[in-house]
Design a protein that fits this description.
Blueprint lengths: L9 H121 L4 H7 L13 H26 L1
């Protein structure tokens, strides 16, 4: 819009005023377009970039936490496997100890049976050779004893052997319990 000058010298003022208004409008448009660009384009892109960084950090933190949990679970499984192996080995040693104790008991029992049978045979032979007693008397006094490993032993000897077996079994049990701790 063109304004007609009403007074002399006013034309330049009107032109300057129009330029000033146009400059002000242009600067306002320029400033508002910068603010519009900042709030419409730049700030949302920054927010999106920051949100992506936060999501990435959370993902990395979760991955580290999950890896630590998996390591811990693997260590726990390894410890449990070791404990199970120790329990199994302790059980095997316990069974071997019991078998050894029973074998020693059976061997001692058989040796006592043989020793008593040999002593009975020797006593009968001594009876027949030294005292000139009749054979029937020596046979009755020194009867032949069973020399097999399953013979019946006198109570005192059998009790002593059984006590030794029970003591060996308790020792085996103590060793197993010590190994399991």
């Amino acid at each position: 819009m063109i304004l007609a000058p009403t007074r002399p010298g006013e034309t330049s003022r009107v032109v300057v005023s129009a330029f000033l208004r146009a400059g002000l409008a242009a600067s306002f448009l320029l400033a508002s377009s910068g603010a519009g660009y900042y709030y419409g384009v730049y700030a949302p892109a920054q927010d999106e970039q920051q949100e992506s960084a936060r999501v990435f950090e959370k993902t990395v933190a979760y991955a580290h936490k999950r890896a630590a949990q998996e390591r811990s679970a693997a260590e726990e499984r390894e410890v449990e496997v070791r404990r199970a192996a120790q329990r199994a080995a302790a059980g095997e040693r316990y069974q071997a100890c019991l078998s050894n104790a029973s074998a020693n008991h059976d061997t001692s029992w058989a040796a006592e049976c043989e020793r008593i049978a040999e002593r009975s045979i020797q006593a009968r032979a001594d009876c027949l050779s030294k005292s000139k007693l009749p054979q029937g008397y020596c046979d009755a006094a020194y009867r032949t004893r069973d020399a097999s490993p399953n013979c019946v032993l006198p109570v005192a000897i059998a009790t002593n052997l059984d006590f030794g077996l029970n003591r060996a079994r308790r020792r085996c049990l103590q060793e197993r319990e010590a190994a399991l701790q």
